[in-house]
Each structure stands twice: as structure tokens, then as C-alpha cells.
Design a protein that fits this description.
Blueprint: H1 3-16, H2 31-37, E1 43-48, H3 63-72, E2 77-79, E3 85-87, E4 90-97, E5 100-105, H4 119-130, E6 145-152, E7 155-160, H5 167-170, H6 181-192, H7 199-203, E8 211-217, E9 221-226, E10 239-244, H8 248-257, E11 262-264, H9 271-275, E12 280-285, E13 290-295, H10 305-314, H11 317-323, E14 329-331, H12 354-363, E15 371-377, H13 380-393, E16 399-405, H14 407-416, E17 421-426, H15 433-441, H16 458-469, H17 473-490, E18 493-499, E19 501-506, E20 509-510, E21 513-514, E22 520-521, E23 526-527
Parallel strand pairs: 1-10, 1-11, 15-16, 15-17
Antiparallel strand pairs: 2-3, 4-5, 5-7, 6-7, 8-9, 9-10, 11-19, 12-19, 13-17, 13-18, 14-18, 20-23, 21-22
Helix pairs in contact: 10-12, 15-16, 16-17
Length: about 525
């Protein structure tokens, strides 16, 4: 194991903050034993700020959708809470040569419709994700995969154009979700009849997971039911309902009344209220995420690097971290969070300096500033950030108007490129440098795939392409180090913070976990009756 691998493991342990909470102690009346005996079953209700956009893993690239999909579909490889790779639908894997990864699959697994999981199912799923007609927004994670070969019923090989050391990590992303091959065939048949890709899958997504899809009342809730035939031990609760409750305070009220068991997310400004309650507790999870203010680099004046740098230097990130995130975040210097592989701990960022920002703005030809808009979705914290930025940019003469969108419409609109500035986050679901940078800034991913700043930089693209292929750890680090330097210099976004993930949880809920990638682990959750 190389020194960088050791450093990564140590770093992930440090930033994990796994499941920090303050649940009430059991009383002395024997209720704990009674509760344990009654923990099987029940309907777990998760109050979420936004509805899923789609339930087809090839159709979207957003966390509210992935939260639901994660419980329906499984991947060949998965992360544990320390972000180590663990067997999923593959029980083992190895690089048999520089350009071939081989996976040995779990036997006896079936999809929710009874179809067998095997090498042919893996082949059908990966080929669909790579199909330009399907246009999966995160297919970039499979770049370089030339062929998927079913060696035998439970052995599959990925043949790649060049060495891809991180392929198993990439397959932990929803791009590696396994859908029933029968349903894939039905979806293709619907496409031939003029339907959009994913139309069949979105209506009744079929995976191998410990929960099965039951019902989607758009804008209201999505309900999943326990998969009684799950191959690796069934879930504890009978159903999980993802309930759309857009108002933060309403979600907390539902926790207090027991109408919901989890508020996801929890605003940092509401932590104190929960900590004073006997009915609720706070679940805190360190993350590998990035919250940022993005610029549309194709719109004037944001096509000018000096303007982008000026705005970056005019924003006091400490104000946002202390005043809005209540300290539950780390200041971001560049695109990668500490603990992500190939993070550069010596990276120098653009320091807060209002006078220097004014000078840059004048040099760019805007001594008196200009007017612009910031777009955001309806999340309270993002609204607060937009308001804070609006106030701070007044100091350098920039007048900002804030526009608010519903989540699905927001993703669609900023993907089209009609915005000036926007506020968004990136969860980096593989905890690797490539997935923390390429989706947001590689020119291949302009638009809905993730590059909503419309950045195009040939040197950056080349570094990212070479970094993906590089096996030597030191050489790979050097490429991603330079990529991070370019991204600070070019300032396509203001790197705000690496925020802790917070959830409000009813005291009856036990065994809840969240990964540093924000994915919820619900299989072992119990509800004390």
C-alpha cells in the first residue's frame, strides 16, 4: 500500500464524524428490552426538501433522486462508512491485466421481477449506460470502457481502452446500478415507439435492493416496501416513505409530532432546537462534498477571469460558515475536500480581500460594478447564502437580484446556460479526484452532466483525461495537483465550503447511517414502537 493510500484511509477516518448524535438514554423500566423486541416493522417516513427528478439511474445526476434509487438498485461494489470499497453484487474483483477488470458475481440473486442477476444482466446495464441514445448524464464515469464480456454466468470482464485504476470506485456511483434486464428491454421497446429513455423504468423501477418500489405521487411522496426475498437478509422496517416537505420548520414540526421520523436535510440554524428536545436528535456526518457559487463563463461579464476572481475575493466565506452553516463546515480552498484521493493540502486559494477585489473589477473595466442575478432552488440554506452574497457584493458595486426555482426546474434551467450565477453543491459520490473535478469542469460534461459553469480549458481537460488513466500514484497526484491550481486561478466557481451533512431524527429511530457521500443506509434502521 502506497503512502497516499495510507494517508487517504487515515483522512477519511478523521473526517468521518460518523453518526454524532445525542439520543435520549433508555429508562430503567425495562422499556429498552421491550423496544428491542418490537423493532421489526413499521413505516419509516423521511421528510425531504425536494422530490426525486427521476428513478431511472441513467436519467438524472442529483442527490434527491439517488437517495431513493440507492434503496432500490444495487451496484457491483459499494462503500462502507469509512469509504472503503466493499463487495456488493460482486463478491470480488481484480485487474487481470492493464486493460481488463474481472468481477466475480454473487450467486442466487434475483431482481424484484424474478429475473436472475448474472453476467448478462451486468453487460446489459453497462451497455445501456454507455448508449448515446440513452444519454446518461454520468456516463463519463465509464469513459474508456470498450466492452463488457460475460465470461460465464457469474464472471464478467470490463475491457478498457486504457488502464483505469479507479473503475471499481466508479461503479459505486449510481452509474453502476443494476436494473432488471427484462425491464431494460421493455424500455428500449418504448423508445422505439417514440418514448423518452427511462419512461418504463421511471414508472416502476426494478432492481435487486432490499426495498422495492411501491408508489410515486409526484410532488408528494415516494413509497418503497420491504423486499421479502432479498438475498442478504431483509430490511427491518416494512416500508420507507420519502415525503416532500419543502419548509424546514414544517419538517421539524413533523418530527415532534411523529408524523415523520427523519428530516433530511436539517438546517444548521435548527440544530439547537433539536438538541434541546427529548423527542429528537441530530445526526451529523462529515462529507466529501463541495458547496459553491458558480458563474456562467459564457455570459458577460463572467467570461472575464478578473471578474470571477474579484467576486471570489469579495466573499467572506467565514461569514457563511459561521452565520449560515453554524460552523458545521470547513472552508473550501478548491474543488476537493480533505480526504478525497489526490487532494492537495498545500493548495493556495484566492484570499478574502475586498480592496484587491475592487482593483480587479476596475482592471476588468467595471470600476462601478454591474448588475447580475443569482439563481438558486428553494432550500433555505441556499437562499440564505444567496442573500449573504448579495449583501457582500454590494461592497464592490455589484447589484444582485435573486431568483428561486423548484428543484427539477432549477437543474433543467442552469443546464441550459441562461443564468449569470447560481448556488449548488456536489457530493462526490466516489470520493475520488476525478469525480470531484471532471463532472463540474471537464468540457465533455457541459450542461446537465454537471459542468453548469460551461468551462472549457484544454489543459484542464488533458490533465483530467491523463489522471484517469494514470496508474502511478505520484504521477496521478501531480496531474490532479495541477488541475486544482488551474481551477483556483480560473475561478469558474467560488469554492465556499465542505459542509457536514445534518439530519433531524426522531428518538425512536435506531441504526441510521449516512455515508460521507450523503447516501442514506436504511437496511438496518429500526423504529421503536
Amino acid at each position: 500500500m502506497g503512502k497516499r493510500s495510507i494517508w487517504l484511509i487515515v483522512s477519511m477516518v478523521v473526517i468521518g464524524f460518523i453518526l454524532v448524535g445525542c439520543a435520549s438514554e433508555p429508562d430503567e423500566s425495562g422499556a429498552e428490552e421491550d423496544g428491542q423486541a418490537q423493532q421489526e416493522g413499521g413505516d419509516l417516513v423521511i421528510a425531504t426538501v425536494s422530490d426525486a427528478v427521476a428513478l431511472d439511474p441513467a436519467g438524472v445526476n442529483d442527490v434527491p433522486s439517488f437517495d431513493v434509487q440507492y434503496n432500490i438498485f444495487e451496484k457491483l461494489v459499494k462503500h462502507d462508512s469509512d469509504m472503503n470499497l466493499q463487495p456488493g453484487l460482486a463478491k470480488s474483483w481484480e485487474a487481470v491485466d492493464d486493460n481488463t477488470w474481472q468481477f466475480e458475481l454473487q450467486e442466487g440473486v434475483t431482481f424484484h421481477d424474478g429475473e436472475p442477476f448474472n453476467a448478462e444482466a451486468v453487460k446489459a446495464n453497462i451497455e445501456r449506460m454507455l448508449d448515446p441514445e440513452v444519454a446518461a448524464p454520468h456516463s463519463y464515469l465509464l469513459d474508456g470502457v470498450e466492452e463488457v464480456v460475460a465470461v460465464d454466468e457469474y464472471t464478467v470482464q470490463f475491457k478498457t481502452e486504457y488502464p483505469i485504476s479507479g473503475l471499481p470506485s466508479s461503479l459505486t456511483h449510481p452509474v453502476g446500478s443494476m436494473i432488471s434486464p427484462k425491464q431494460i428491454e421493455e424500455d428500449y421497446a418504448a423508445m422505439e415507439n417514440g418514448e423518452n429513455p427511462g419512461s418504463v423504468i421511471n414508472e416502476n423501477p426494478i432492481g435487486t435492493g432490499y426495498f422495492k418500489f411501491d408508489e410515486w405521487n409526484t410532488g408528494q411522496y415516494i413509497r418503497l416496501v420491504k423486499n421479502e426475498d432479498y438475498w442478504d437478509g431483509t430490511a427491518n422496517v416494512d416500508t420507507v416513505t420519502f415525503k416532500v416537505v419543502s419548509e424546514d420548520l414544517t419538517r421539524i414540526a413533523e418530527l415532534q409530532t411523529g408524523d415523520s421520523h427523519i428530516s433530511n436535510p436539517l438546517s444548521a440554524s435548527d440544530v439547537e432546537q433539536l438538541e434541546q428536545s427529548d423527542e429528537m436528535y441530530v445526526n451529523q456526518q462529515g462529507s466529501v462534498s463541495l458547496d459553491y457559487l458558480g458563474f456562467n463563463m459564457e455570459q458577460e461579464p463572467f467570461d472575464d477571469k478578473l471578474v470571477r476572481q474579484a467576486i471570489s475575493m469579495a466573499i467572506n466565506k467565514d461569514e457563511i460558515i459561521d452565520g449560515i452553516a453554524n460552523g458545521y463546515a470547513k472552508k473550501a480552498i478548491g474543488p476537493l475536500a480533505p480526504g478525497v484521493a489526490d487532494y492537495d493540502e498545500n493548495l493556495k486559494g484566492l484570499e478574502y480581500d475586498v480592496e484587491a477585489a475592487k482593483e480587479l473589477l476596475a482592471e476588468a473595466g467595471y470600476p462601478d460594478g454591474f448588475s447580475a442575478t443569482i439563481w438558486t432552488n428553494e432550500t433555505r440554506e441556499r437562499l440564505d447564502i444567496a442573500t449573504n452574497v448579495q449583501a457582500q457584493l454590494k461592497d464592490i458595486g455589484i447589484s444582485v437580484e435573486i431568483e428561486v426555482f423548484e428543484w427539477a426546474a432549477y437543474l433543467e434551467e442552469i443546464g441550459k446556460g441562461n443564468h449569470d450565477m447560481f448556488i449548488l453543491g456536489w457530493s462526490n459520490s466516489t470520493a475520488e479526484a476525478n469525480n470531484g473535478i471532471a463532472p463540474l469542469f471537464h468540457s465533455d460534461n457541459i450542461g446537465p452532466s454537471g459542468n453548469r459553469t460551461f468551462m472549457q480549458n484544454d489543459e484542464l481537460d488533458q490533465l483530467l483525461d491523463e489522471g484517469l488513466m494514470e496508474i502511478d500514484e505520484e504521477e496521478r497526484f501531480n496531474k490532479y495537483q495541477r488541475a486544482q491550481e488551474i481551477l483556483v486561478e480560473e475561478a469558474p466557481v467560488v469554492y465556499l465550503m465542505h459542509k457536514d451533512y445534518l439530519m433531524g431524527v426522531h428518538e425512536s429511530v435506531n441504526n441510521l447511517e449516512m455515508l460521507p457521500t450523503k447516501m442514506l443506509l436504511l437496511k438496518d434502521v429500526t423504529i421503536e414502537q
